[in-house]
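Risk register update: the risk that structure generation would not scale has been downgraded. Supporting records follow, first protein first.
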Amino acid sequence: MSFLKNVLGVIVAIVIIISCSSIPSESSTKEKEKPVVIENDSLEYEIIIIDPGFNNHLYSIARPRGYHSLKYLEIRNRFLVPIWNQRVNNPSQFNPNIYENRINYDPYVEYGYEVNYLLFQYFQFAQRKYRMTLR
């Protein structure tokens, strides 16, 4: 069942990306930033980040892969995901344009280093970009 949810989430994200890319905008003449796809090796889990600026954050601001241990990233993500989801569930209190989607992160699942690293980096990026603190 969770595999179907993941596949459905990917399909919805692809549709959104395709529909957004077909709308001409002022930035269409500039090089478009590609979405960041977070996945583990077995392709059971996938997150697509389409937030402009995230690629720049990864390559210029974020700590490099290997800087934090997997355990550190898992602990931080276990702390940050529920805060994020609480804000998604309260659109009258928190900006629904920022907190659009729930993150289905199960602390008992081993997602691997890459998924945990990129998810953690997204939280760092969002806090910087939107000038907010996840506490």
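Supporting record for the second protein:
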Amino acid sequence: MKVTVGSKVTVEYSIYLQGSTGSLRDMKSFKASFEVGKGEAVPVIEDAVLGRTPGESVVMEIKGSDIFGPYDEKKIIPIPIDKLDIESSLSPGDFFHYRDDENRIHPFRVKKVENDLIWADFNHPLGDETFILHLIIEKVD
């Protein structure tokens, strides 16, 4: 049975950062089930399984933005240093967090430090990376 929109699909997959030293055999695999076309999986995964049959394998590159969403310059905002609980200085590339007025924690990457401001990048830190996906279609209903 081929995967079509509306099919319930069970897959086993591994995903790792391109350029990492691990091989597909060394990666931990995960299982997932989803209905194609319902938005239960990221679109690039749904596209990868369409038209395939149980037992088929797919190996492909995936951009981080396809998983975590596109990079958004509006998610880089200045935060006064005195609003952060910093015990030492921060440098570009460091990860830190911002605690809002409702005590929620928002992680960010330091984009730049300028005078008394930290330019905080709230985009997903892996959004600009490339990944290798190895996916095996186990079951199609």
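The chain has a mean pLDDT of 90. On this basis the risk owner (M.S.) recommends closing the item.
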